[in-house]
Amino acid sequence: MSALRAIKDVVGPKGEIASDDAAPFLSEWRGRWPGEAAMIVCPASTEEVAKIVKICADHNIAITPQGGNTGLVGGQIPSGDEILLSLKRMRRIREIEPLNNTMTVDAGLTLAEAQEAAKEADRLFPLSIGSEGSCQIGGIISTNAGGVNVLRYGNTRDLVLGLEAVLPNGEILSSLKRLRKDNTGYDLKQLFIGGEGTLGIVTAAVLKLFPLPAEKVTVCAGVSSARDAVALLSYAQNETGGAATSFELMARICIDLVLKHIPDTRDPLGERHPFYVLMEFSSGQKTGLRSDIEDMLAGALEKGLIKDAVIAENEAQTQSLWRIRHSISEGINGEGLGARHDVSVATSDIPAFLEKAGAAVARLAPGARVVAFGHIGDGNVHYDVVGAEGGGPHALDDKRAKIESAVYDVIDSFNGSISAEHGVGRHRRDTLAKRKSEVELGMMRAIKNALDPNGIMNPGKMI
Amino acid sequence: MSALRAIKDVVGPKGEIASDDAAPFLSEWRGRWPGEAAMIVCPASTEEVAKIVKICADHNIAITPQGGNTGLVGGQIPSGDEILLSLKRMRRIREIEPLNNTMTVDAGLTLAEAQEAAKEADRLFPLSIGSEGSCQIGGIISTNAGGVNVLRYGNTRDLVLGLEAVLPNGEILSSLKRLRKDNTGYDLKQLFIGGEGTLGIVTAAVLKLFPLPAEKVTVCAGVSSARDAVALLSYAQNETGGAATSFELMARICIDLVLKHIPDTRDPLGERHPFYVLMEFSSGQKTGLRSDIEDMLAGALEKGLIKDAVIAENEAQTQSLWRIRHSISEGINGEGLGARHDVSVATSDIPAFLEKAGAAVARLAPGARVVAFGHIGDGNVHYDVVGAEGGGPHALDDKRAKIESAVYDVIDSFNGSISAEHGVGRHRRDTLAKRKSEVELGMMRAIKNALDPNGIMNPGKMI
Q1: Interval A34-63 mean pLDDT
Q2: GO molecular function terms here (chains A, B) (predicted)?
Q3: Cα(B283)–Cα(A153) distance, rounded to whole angstroms?
Q4: Distance from CA of B263 to the nearest CA of A (A)
Q5: Which residues in chain A touch residue B424, judged by CB atoms under 8 angstroms apart?
C-alpha cells in the first residue's frame, strides 16, 4: 500500500519497528487488551509526526499514539489496522529556564527524566506516579495523570503552560508559550490534556517548575474511621497552612495484604487501627515545619482524631512507610483479580461513600473484602474488591460486572467520577457512554467531529 | 415581536429593565463602547436563563451576557439588537463545604461577597482584583480573571472545579462537580473559562477554597533594574520556598505619578530608585516567616539585588504600600489617555522586553513616557505610554495605533501574549485575528461553529 510506504519513507529505517520487535508495543504490562496494528512507527521529530498524520488523513488511516505504554485503561493499544505511533524517540529537553520556572520538553521524555532535569536546575517538577520511570510526558498530558502530590501541586493539567500538538489534519498547533497569563481566546491546550489522543498527538510541552522544598516531614497515623481521617486532613491543613503534599488513606486490610504478600515489610504502628493515614508535609521555610507538625499531631491526639502516630526520623523510615503505600496494588494482586475502581467524590463525602458502597458490595458478594485506599486529599479512592479469604483468585469473576455497576451507581449518587485519574480508554468507554449526561456527551461529540471529522485519531477510545 | 414578549413572560416584571434604567448596563465605566440592546433582562434562575436562550435560539436572536460590567475590553456590551442578559439577580451561595474546601455559588455573586463567605467559613478564596466589589463570579470565569495573587494561587481557571452553563441551544450543562480529580472525557468547563460568553452563559460554579494564611509579610524594595527585580523574585522564592503571593514591579515614574495625582500618598523609601518591587509573602506556618524574610532581604542586599527595603510593621503600613500600587492607573489617568497594554512574556524575558519595547516607543514618539508596572511574578506587565511632560492629555492620540502595533510586535518576538488578563472582547478582536496563528484561529472557529452554529452567543466579541 502506497500510504504505508510513504510513512516508511518519512521515518526511515530507524523509525520503523519490525514485527519481531512489535510485542512490547501491542500489549500492556498486565496483558489485557492485546493489540494489533498495521504498522508501528517511531518518528524522530514533530515534523515527521505531522507528515505521518497528513498521509493518514489523506488516506483515512487511523492512528493510535503511544507514550510509555503504562496506561491502565487500554487507551494506548490499537485494535486493528491503525498505525501505532510511538513518541519514544522524541526525548529532547528543549529548554530549562529556572528564572521563569519552566521547562520545555519533547513528548517522549520520561517523567523520571523530567523530574531529574528539573532537580539539576535546582527546581521541582512535582508530578509523581508509580510508573514514572517509563511513562512519558505526552502520555501524562494525554491522560491528565494525577498521583501522590496532587493535593499541593494539582494534576498534570495544572502543570502545563504550553503545548505543541499535531492535529488530525496534519497541521501543527504550535503553542509552546511559557506564560502564566494569556487571555487570548479559547484555551485550546486544555482539549489535549486528558484528551487521550482522540483530538491529536501531543509532541512537546512547556511545564511549570517550583522551588525545591527545604524541609519535609512524613507521618503515619492510625485513625478510628474514615470520618476521622477526613477531619484530620482539614485540621492538619489548617494548623500547617496547607503544608500537606500527600494525604493517603489506607484501610487496615491494605496493611494486612502488604504484610502477607510483600517481603521485608512491617506494621507501621504497634497496634492495629481500622484506618491509617500516610501524610507528607513540606515547606520552603528552613525551620519550623517539624515543630508545627508535632504540635498538630499532639492536638489531633487530644481531640481523638488520631490514636497513634509515628514521624519518620530519617530517609530510610520515610521510604519504609511509603513502601507500604506503594505495595498495596501488588498486595491486592496476591489475592486475585477482584473488581477494581478508580473513583472520586468530594473529600467530605468519602466516609458516606465508603459506607454506602460497602453495603452494596456486601449485598452482592457476601464475604468479599473491600480494599480501599487512595489520595483522599483529592477525594480519590482506589476502591478494590477481592473475594472472601481463601476463595481463590477468581472468586469474584462472575460478579465483577455487577459489583462495578453497583459501585458506579453509588458514585453517581454522590455526583462523583467513575474515573478519577486513570482515564477512560477502551476499558470504560461503554460505561462512560451510559453514565455521562447526554448534554456532556453531545458537547464531546460536537468537539470531536469538529476537529477530527473522519475519526482517525485513536478510534475506539474514550468517545 | 412575539419572541421578546415570550422572554418578558419568562422573567416577569422584576426581571425586565425599563429603558430609563438601561444606561448603567449599556455603557462601561470609562464610557468607551457605548452599547445598544433590543432588551435587557435579569433572569432569577438557571432555568429562566435556559428558557430565554431557547427562545433566542429558536428565533435567531443574539445574546450578550453581562456580569458586573467591569470588563476592560467591551466584551460585556451589546452593540445592536442583542438581548442583554444580566446575571445580577442570581446571587445565591448554594453551598460551602469547609471539609472539602469548596464553595458552590451562582454566577451573579460578586467576588467580594464570595471572598467574604469563604472567610466566614474560615477559608480563603484567593482571587483578588481591583473591581472585586462589583465584578461577578460568572464574569471572572468568562474572562479568566487574574489579579495580584496569581503567583501563588493561579488565575480563575485554576480555581474552578465545576461549572453550570447554558449552551447556545438552551440546554443546561450541569457539571457542578466538587471533585479535584475527574478524568472522564474532555474537560468541557475549560471552554467557558476565558470563553468571554461566546459559547454559552455561565450560571454557577464550584470554586476551590484554601486554608487562611497564618502569617503575612509585606515588603517594598528599591532595585536598580528590572533585571535585578527578576533575579530577586527567583532568589526570594528559593529562600522562602515559594512563599511569595504577590510580586509587583513599579518603575519609578509610577511612584511619581501617584505622588503627583493622588492625595495622601508618600514615597515608600528615603531615596529614589529606578524600580520598586512590592512583595507580599504568606505562610500557613505560625512562626518563622518574618525571620526568613529578614534573612532573605539581608542576603539580597549583600548580593546587590536590592538597594533598600522596608517591611510593613502593621496593617496601616501594609495598606499604605498597596495604596501606591493600586493608585497607579488613576495616576496615569491624570496624564491623559496614552496607549495602554496588558501584555505578558516569560518572567525571565521581562528585562529584554522592557528594553526593546522602550526603544520602539522612543522611535515612534520621542519624549513619551513609559509607565511600566505589573505582576511580574506572572510575567504580566501593564505597559502604558503617556505623552511627554506637559503635552496634554491628547498628546499621543495620533500615535496610539502605531505605538500599540509596535509594542505588540515586540510581544510577538518574545512569543508573549497581547492580552495577559483583560481578555479580547471588542477591543482586541481585530488585533487577535491578525496576530494569532491560522492554526489556532482555525481551531477556535471550528469549536465556535460546532457549539454555536448560528453565532448567537455574544457576537462581535473575541472571535
Answers
A1: 97
A2: catalytic activity; FAD binding
A3: 16
A4: 32
A5: 183-185
Quick check: B194 and B144 in contact, CB under 8 A? yes
* The three grid cell numbers given for residue A245, joined into one nine-digit string: 503534599
Choose, out of B183, B347, B445, the residue to mutate when testing the contact with A (most A CBs < 10 Å).
B183
pLDDT band at A254 (very low <50, low <70, confident <90, very high): very high
Nearest partner of A450 among B442, B436, B454, B170, judged by Cα: B442
pLDDT tens readout for residues B28-42: 888 888 899 999 999
pLDDT surpasses 70 at B1: no
Instruction: Among A102, A149, A181, pick the best mutation site for testing chain B contact (most B Cβ within 10 A).
Output: A181
Asked if the C-beta of B121 comes within 8 angstroms of chain A's C-beta atoms, the answer is: no
Measured from the Cβ of residue B313, the count of other Cβ atoms closer than 10 Å reads: 9
**DSSP class of A297:** H
Chain A contact set for B182 (CB, 8 A)? 344, 417, 419-420
Partners of A184 on chain B (C-beta within 8 Å) are: 417-419, 424, 428, 432, 436
Task: Order across the sheet with A63-66: list the strands.
Answer: A39-41, A83-86, A63-66
Listing DSSP states for A202-251 in one string gives EEEEEEE-EEPPSEEEEEEEEES-HHHHHHHHHHHHHHHTS-EEEEEEEE
Of A102, A155, A440, the CB nearest to B181: A155
Residues of chain A in contact with residue B443, where contact means CB-CB under 8 angstroms, are 167, 173, 186, 188, 451
Residue B82's nearest CA partner among B176, B164, B3, B15 is B3
Of B181, B145, B186, nearest to B342 by C-alpha is B145
CA distance B414 to B11: 49
Residue with cell 503617556: B386
Q: Measure the CA–CA gap between B312 and B437, rounded to whole angstroms.
A: 46
Q: Per-residue pLDDT for A68 more than 80?
A: yes
What ipTM, to 2 d.p.?
0.96
Helix (H, G, I), strand (E, B) or coil at A178: coil
DSSP for residue B100: G
User: In the numeric block, which cell numbers belong to residue B161?
Assistant: 472545579
Task: Record the cell numbers describing residue A391, joined without a space.
Answer: 476463595
Percent of chain A with pLDDT over 70: 100
Mean pLDDT of A361-380: 95
Determine which of B164, B175, B184 to mutate to test the interface with A (most A C-beta atoms within 10 Å).
Answer: B184
Nearest Cα of chain B lies from the Cα of A366 at a distance, in angstroms, of: 30
Chain B contact for A432, CB < 8 A?
yes
The x, y and z cell numbers of residue B307, run together, are: 538597594
**Domains located in chain A, CATH noted:** 2-86 (3.30.43.10), 93-211 (3.30.465.10), 215-326 (3.30.70.2190), 335-428 (3.30.70.2740)
Question: Does B175 sit within 8 Å of A440, measured CB to CB?
Answer: yes
Alpha carbons B174 and B176: distance in angstroms, whole number: 6
Residue range B396-430, pLDDT digits in tens: 999 999 999 999 999 999 999 999 999 999 999 99
Cα–Cα distance list, B34 to A368, B16, B29, B86, B389 (Å):
68, 20, 10, 17, 31
- Whether residue B433 lies within 8 A of chain A, CB to CB, comes out as no
Alpha-carbon gap, residue B318 to B311, rounded angstroms = 8
